Prior knowledge:
heterodimer, A: 110 residues, mainly beta, 6-stranded mixed β-sheet, B: 114 residues, 7-stranded mixed β-sheet, 4-stranded antiparallel β-sheet, 0% helix, globular
Amino acid sequence: xxxxxxSPQNLTAQEGEFITINCSYSVGISALHWLQQHPGGxxxxxxxxxxxxKKHGRLIATINIQEKHSSxxxxxxxxRDSAVYICAVRQRGSQGNLIFGKGTKLSVKP
Amino acid sequence: xxxxxxxxxxxxxxxxxQVTLSCSPISGHRSVSWYQQTPGQGLQFLFEYFSETQxxxxxxxxxxxGRQFSNSRSEMNVSTLELGDSALYLCASSLERLAAETQxxxxxxxxxxx
Lengths: 110, 114
């Protein structure tokens, strides 16, 4: 079993829909990251969370440390949101190793 | 500020050769981390350099090595290339140790081993 599991693996939405991507992990962590990877490979770091909730524009990330679960929400989705979204956790005590989920491929149709 | 740059962007090598990839971090950033991304394994952590010292290493064989220079630029080297080393190699920089910081990723070097 992977230490970081994401769901769904693939997601197709219509423009304007509210989107949720989930991440569950099985290890103790010091932080959780959400990354966005566009076709071509470039990765952008969206959020780094250790507790609670963060918001940036139409993106919201939440984390529940007790449940070992995080969600990434996209409100009013747009075709330019189409990308792979990757959850990564920084394992507590590992001096900073990041463990990555397999990613969720999101396609937003106009 | 200029972003993280990686050179070369694309590379084709044959089995048994060695390769050196370069990463220039954002000006002022002292931490550089390297990652390998393959379709099968996804993203995997290779190593982190901070102040010219390797601070952490992922689960990769000794054929994978790296170094960091006094200007924070970093290189990674893969010796005796294998077909399975074909991947996108990404570096990322941050101001301080990556454990406490958001990272900024470069565009990657796509390596094909024939």
